[in-house]
Amino acid sequence: LPDADLDLRAVPVTVTPGDVVRALPSRPSLVGASRAAPQHLGDLLQAAAAGAAAWAGQTPVARGRALVDLAAEVEGRRSSFVTEARRSGLQISGALAEVDAAVDRLVWWAGWADKLDLLPAPVPPPGHGRLVERGPGVVLVVAPAARALLGPVSVLAPPLVAGGACLLVPAAAAAQLADLLARAALAAVLPAGLLTVAAGGQERV
User: Fold this and answer.
1) What predicted TM-score, i.e. pTM, was given to this entire model?
2) 175-187 vs 60-76: helix axis angle to the nearest 10?
3) Which residues contact 79 (CB under 8 A, 6 or more apart)?
4) DSSP characters for 89-125?
5) pLDDT score for 123
């Protein structure tokens, strides 16, 4: 369950067309995340929308398995994540605990992927026909600064489980951890554009 000290409230953010984000160099047909090379926000949002469409088209079970694969990639890159967590200011024990918590959080949310369809369907108001359920599309998520790795994972996992793509704005001290998470998403074979990391810090965006 989300930590009591982790603020997961939505944060209103204004992004202008001139803002720049970083796109991760991608392998053919293996482009799960974005970082590094400057691109305009509109281009990345278009790619994220395509990723959201592909992701929402997968079965809930497939999305859950993909998140488990992402958790396995984070675990397999433990030494890199621990190193970056220590650079963000954590002691070795805290860095190890942070990676463990992030892996557990991904697995926890993966378990919910096939449960969402079991929720009662909403009833449309009288005279409004029927409601069409769809994925959340592209979701802008602002990572809390309190937890260097668990923060980004905690705000990314819910929209991913629901079938959405994420544009992540990490805290300045956790930017490298967010990049590592994006690379882990690439290795987990998430759809192209599904996870994009915005550059410039939360204050600029």
Assistant:
1) 0.73
2) 120
3) none
4) T--HHHHHHHHHHHHHHHHHHHTTTTTGGGSPPPPPP
5) 64
Cα separation, 169 vs 43, whole angstroms = 17
Q: What three-state secondary structure class fits 197?
A: strand
User: DSSP letter at 27?
Assistant: B
3-29: per-residue pLDDT in tens? 544 443 333 333 333 333 333 333 222
CB 81 within 8 A of CB 153: no
Please say whether the beta carbons of 133 and 164 come within 8 A. Answer: no
Reported as half-sphere exposure (CB side, CA atoms, 13 A), residue 162 has a value of 16
Q: How many whole angstroms separate alpha carbon 82 and alpha carbon 178?
A: 13
Report d(CA 190, CA 56) in Å as an integer: 12
Q: Element (H or E) spanning 75, and its range?
A: helix 60-76
Rounded CA-CA distance 152/169 in Å is 9
Q: Could you tell me which of 81, 91, 198 has the C-alpha nearest to residue 141?
A: 198
Helix or strand holding residue 33 (H, E) = strand 33-34
